[in-house]
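Sanity check

After download, print the first record. It should look like this:
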Amino acid sequence: MKYLAWIAVIIVSGLAGVMSFQWFSAPPEPSTQTASARVIATVPTSLFKIESSDGRFSQLSADKKLYIAYFGFTHCPDVCPTSLAILSAALQEVSEEQRQQLQSLFVSVDPKRDDPATVSTYAGYFHPDIVGLSPQEGQLIGLTQALGVYYKYVETPDSQLEYSVDHSSFFYFLNADGELLAKVPHTLDPAPVVTKIQQLLPQ
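Expected structure tokens:
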């Protein structure tokens, strides 16, 4: 239960930063209700051949009917922690049967600092079902271009971190064939994520 308490603290402390977050991606779809009826884009499955440090993920597999991918980085001050906390809350609201059919992925857009072990540990802070991935540079470029994920490295000369990463904030819902079925924009409420899971994994 310690990680749940930690997540609650993150949500509260991150709200102010989230409210001032600048959106860099295209506007969200007019209606997420119809997203499950069509394929928005298709990602080559080879781009998802990323070995997680804990061995739980190596590629998209038919063993899972649905994947939820979120792109961010471990040094993100507010948006990523809040989004992962929302994803964690959503996973706790869906049924066990639905959780068994889906896999949540936290894909780093800062693989230079986020090695596989680091991103795996970070993702696990929020929920044990979230797998952290650190793609190679070519894979990251391919994935983000295919899905329309925005990210940009920004120098921060007055910080010990030296740079930060501006990025868009969406939950991407894909099937095992790499087809993008829906995307849900950054939210402070798990309900939209829960609703989308239930639409794509009806019981």
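If your output differs, re-run the checksum step. Summary of this record's structure: The chain has six helices and eight strands.
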